[in-house]
């Protein structure tokens, strides 16, 4: 299912050094009536992107802006009902959607900048 609001490959999101390590940041794009919500997570020099929709009930994961990680920063947390996801592959390892993954949003780093891939 394509979303017309999903940014084209090469869209600049932020500088890598603007992300905490570990850290995360959400992004919202709008195109007419369509809305695309995604977030990126950083661990060291690695960045991954995810669509901001929980596989449990379809809610955005963070209720506080950019708060996608647990306090320890080792897992992605859905604040609605507590699902926990591994940041390396997005797999839910605890909570109501255990065994189901987040949908990936491909991103890459180019010259110290996080861009969509
Ligand atoms: S919507 Fe994420 S745990 Fe329920």
CATH class: Mainly Beta
The CATH topology annotation reads as Rieske Iron-sulfur Protein
Q: How many angstroms does the end-to-end distance come to?
A: 18 Å
Number of helices: 0
- Low-confidence regions: none
- What sort of overall outline do the alpha carbons produce when their principal axes are compared? globular
Instruction: Compute the CA-based radius of gyration.
Output: 13 Å
Number of domains: 1
What is the CATH homologous superfamily assignment? Rieske [2Fe-2S] iron-sulphur domain
Q: Can you tag this structure with a few keywords?
A:
single chain; three-stranded antiparallel sheet; 9 strands; binds FE2/S2 (inorganic) cluster; Rieske Iron-sulfur Protein; mainly beta; 117 residues
